[in-house]
């Protein structure tokens, strides 16, 4: 594979990853301690689950027969063999609350089960944060088709109410709640990065245009780190001659409301993005390579996507469509590569073919992973798990499944299109002295653009 | 009233009333809950409808999971088919159903009935061995074991009555009918309800994923 041409002023992703690891340690100390009385925390958590339980959740909770099939589909169980990581266990506490509070047989369950206490939630914390990336692979094998990942997400909401969000996620949640951004990022940091990119690379990043066809989101991981994702996105957008902008009041893809389960914060983050896109009359909103931002925006059931005047898509979808329509002409990619479907854009998002179309446009020697598309194994770092220090062993062990999968393909490198996956791959590569390259899809595209002056009529509209 | 008459009369009738009332109570109690709307724009306009195929497609595991699910799937199929066969196809059961509903159909020869019952019982035993030998996979609770016993009893007593093994035939038959009554009465309050939930559960997930253009 080709080597990135980015100059050394921008640190490599490996350096970013190492800096990031240091920052995560600090987060643990910044997390606020619980403030409410114990009974209140339990009551709020229980109420949250009651409120979020519709017929779908009730049927799923009723349906499990303990057949055990889900266990071997879960990377955390397969990697450790420990009973507690069986996917079905991750919904046990939710089921108990359901049985005692909502189920038609609640009078019976109240007789035979003990009341839910704070330590039940404390015990479940590891299962629903550290040991579930909400990747949904267990649903692919469950004979009942139970969507365990969505039940785990409700559990995360209950954990927010119980003040049991793990410290790293909680610190970032608080930062985003009070400052709107994370990792110390800000509109100023965005402008500084744009200036830096213009001065050093000669690439223009249009910030706060009053009107644009395409609104692009960025990510704090990128902004406060190496900026390569933003630089690459800008190169591609400008190359395609697209009328685009980044809004300084709504540029952040990352949503720690969704990751922690705090749906009030989710809303607080999403609303300015939707408002900004409408204000600038965007036709398309492009979500940066930040996996969970896709379900936070494109697929969130509470966001009336059908009625918005713009279309939302992930950057890999955008690039794939451009490639299919022949607008994105790319130089050949050297070396054999495989592609890792991030859970949130793949199995739980459906953006399977577009990133493959981009690789095809690069004439890549492309090989599928043994388990791909809806059967892809999670890398182990999704849904905020990459940030949790306590989850290090789970993450590292489950990453070995991914390594074996990649080894089987004989590929020299893996292409990913999600910052969390990429950080986790980088961590795994570093710890295991793994000799594979890990590349971001958008950065690869930026590296392989065939430079030319856009001719009349060639300027693409997304 | 003999034990057999007692079993054939009040016991089985009471159990059937509990079965029907319990089924309605539990199904309606869950299905009347509100359904949350998914307001996001579907990947393609009629895509959600494709989700219903999961109800059928999930009847067999995907190739991806072939090795890990083979034992459980094959035995579960043998158990379910054997049980359905023996419940609905042997002559005494058809006569009982006819006495309740007036509906009847031809039965299978006795040796087929015995074979079906044996297949069901043997596969059920094989499944419990698996459950006991791999606790980390099955995450079993007391309900799993109680259900196993309540399902196994009618199979066991039925085969024993047919083969004239154990107690006097009339007593064995009465025990068989009472064990079936226990199963009927227990059914709506147990995980046996999956016989109904599977349709809803699979359809819900099928639609949730089809909405995003993903086939599960």
Give structural notes.
Chain A has 462 residues and is mainly α. Chain A folds into three domains: 38-161, Fumarate Reductase Iron-sulfur Protein, Chain B, domain 2, CATH 1.10.1060; 181-324, Rossmann fold; 336-447, Rossmann fold (3-Layer(aba) Sandwich), CATH 3.40.50. Chain A has helices at residues 13-30, 38-52, 55-63, 75-80, 92-101, 106-112, 118-130, 137-141, 148-161, 167-179, 187-201, 220-223, 228-240, 256-260, 263-279, 293-297, 315-324, 353-361, 392-409, 419-431, 441-447, and strands at 214-216, 244-245, 284-287, 311-314, 336-339, 365-366, 413-416, 437-440. In chain A, the strands form two sheets. Chain A has a four-stranded parallel β-sheet. Chain A has a four-stranded parallel β-sheet with strand order 6-5-7-8, with helices on both faces. Chain A is globular and about 75 Å long. In chain A, 59% of the residues are buried. In chain B, helix 3 runs antiparallel to helix 5 (110-133) and helix 5 (110-133) runs antiparallel to helix 7. Chain B has 216 residues and is mainly alpha-helical. The longest helix of chain B has 29 residues, at 3-31. Chain B has one domain (3-29, 65-210): Transmembrane di-heme cytochromes, Chain C (Fumarate Reductase Cytochrome B subunit, Up-down Bundle). Chains A and B meet through helix 3 and helix 8 of A and helix 1, helix 3, helix 6 and helix 9 of B.
Structure described in brief:
The complex is a heterodimer of chains A (462) and B (216). Chain A is 49% helix and 6% strand. Chain A is mostly helical and 462 residues long.
Write the layout of secondary structure elements.
The complex is a heterodimer of chains A (462) and B (216).
Chain A: H1 13-30, H2 38-52, H3 55-63, H4 75-80, H5 92-101, H6 106-112, H7 118-130, H8 137-141, H9 148-161, H10 167-179, H11 187-201, E1 214-216, H12 220-223, H13 228-240, E2 244-245, H14 256-260, H15 263-279, E3 284-287, H16 293-297, E4 311-314, H17 315-324, E5 336-339, H18 353-361, E6 365-366, H19 392-409, E7 413-416, H20 419-431, E8 437-440, H21 441-447
Parallel strand pairs in A: 1-2, 1-3, 3-4, 5-6, 5-7, 7-8
Helix pairs in contact in A: 1-10, 1-20, 2-9, 5-6, 7-9, 13-21, 17-18, 19-20
Chain B: H1 3-31, H2 54-57, H3 66-89, H4 91-101, H5 110-133, H6 135-138, H7 142-163, H8 169-186, H9 194-210
């Amino acid at each position: 594979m080709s080597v990135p041409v980015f100059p050394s002023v921008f640190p490599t992703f490996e350096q970013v990853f190492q800096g990031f690891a240091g920052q995560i340690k600090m987060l643990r100390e910044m997390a606020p301690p619980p403030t409410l009385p114990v009974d209140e925390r339990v009551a709020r958590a229980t109420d949250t689950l009651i409120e979020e339980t519709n017929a779908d959740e009730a049927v799923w909770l009723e349906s499990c027969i303990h057949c055990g099939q889900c266990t071997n589909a879960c990377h955390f169980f397969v990697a450790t063999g420990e009973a507690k990581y069986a996917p079905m266990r991750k919904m046990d506490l939710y089921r108990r609350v359901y049985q005692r509070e909502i189920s038609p047989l609640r009078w019976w369950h109240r007789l035979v089960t003990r009341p839910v206490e704070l330590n039940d939630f404390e015990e479940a914390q590891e299962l629903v944060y550290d040991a579930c990336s909400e990747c949904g692979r267990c649903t692919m094998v469950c004979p009942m088709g139970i969507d365990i990942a969505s039940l785990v997400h409700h559990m995360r909401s209950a954990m927010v109410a119980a003040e049991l969000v793990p410290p790293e996620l909680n610190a970032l949640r608080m930062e985003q709640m009070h400052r709107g951004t994370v990792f110390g990022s800000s509109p100023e940091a965005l402008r500084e990065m744009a200036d830096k990119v213009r001065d050093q690379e000669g690439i223009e990043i249009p910030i706060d245009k009053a009107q644009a066809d395409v609104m692009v989101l960025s990510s704090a991981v990128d902004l406060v780190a190496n900026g390569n994702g933003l630089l690459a996105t800008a190169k591609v957008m400008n190359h395609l001659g697209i009328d685009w902008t980044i809004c300084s009041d709504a540029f952040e893809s990352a949503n720690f409301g969704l990751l922690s389960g705090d749906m009030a914060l989710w809303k607080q983050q999403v609303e300015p993005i939707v408002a900004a896109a409408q204000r600038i009359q965007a036709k398309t909103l492009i979500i940066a390579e930040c996996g969970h931002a896709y379900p936070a925006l494109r697929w969130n059931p509470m966001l009336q996507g059908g009625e918005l005047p713009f279309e939302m898509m992930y950057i890999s979808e955008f690039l794939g469509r451009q490639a299919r329509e022949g607008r994105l002409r790319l130089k050949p990619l050297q070396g054999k590569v495989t592609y890792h479907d991030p859970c949130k854009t793949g199995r739980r998002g459906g953006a399977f073919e577009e990133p493959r179309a981009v690789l095809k446009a690069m004439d890549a020697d492309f090989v599928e992973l043994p388990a791909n598309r809806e059967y892809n194994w999670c890398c182990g770092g999704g849904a905020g798990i990459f940030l949790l220090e306590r989850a290090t062993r789970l993450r590292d062990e489950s990453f070995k499944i991914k390594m074996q999968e990649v080894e089987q393909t004989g590929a020299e490198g893996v292409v990913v299109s999600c910052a969390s996956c990429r950080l986790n791959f980088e961590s795994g590569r570093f710890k295991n002295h793994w000799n594979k390259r890990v590349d971001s899809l958008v950065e690869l595209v930026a590296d392989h653009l065939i430079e030319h002056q856009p001719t009349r009529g060639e300027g693409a509209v997304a | 009233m003999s034990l057999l008459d007692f079993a054939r009369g009040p016991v089985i009738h009471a159990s059937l009333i509990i079965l029907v009332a319990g089924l309605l109570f539990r199904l309606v109690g869950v299905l009347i809950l509100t359904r949350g709307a998914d307001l996001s724009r579907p990947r393609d306009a009629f895509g959600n409808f494709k989700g219903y195929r999961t109800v059928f497609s999930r009847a067999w595991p995907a190739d991806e999971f072939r090795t890990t699910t083979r034992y459980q799937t094959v035995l579960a199929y043998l158990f379910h088919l054997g049980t359905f066969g023996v419940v609905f196809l042997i002559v005494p059961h058809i006569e009982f159903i006819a006495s309740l509903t007036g509906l009847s159909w031809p039965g299978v020869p006795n040796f087929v009935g015995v074979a079906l019952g044996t297949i069901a019982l043997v596969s059920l035993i094989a499944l419990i061995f698996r459950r006991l030998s791999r606790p980390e996979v099955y995450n079993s609770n007391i309900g799993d074991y109680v259900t196993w016993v309540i399902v196994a009893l009618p199979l066991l007593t039925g085969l024993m009555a047919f083969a004239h093994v154990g107690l006097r035939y009339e007593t064995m038959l009465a025990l068989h009918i009472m064990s079936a009554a226990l199963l009927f009465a227990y059914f709506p309050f147990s995980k046996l309800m999956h016989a109904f939930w599977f349709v809803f559960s699979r359809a819900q997930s099928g639609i949730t994923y089809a909405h995003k253009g993903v086939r599960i």
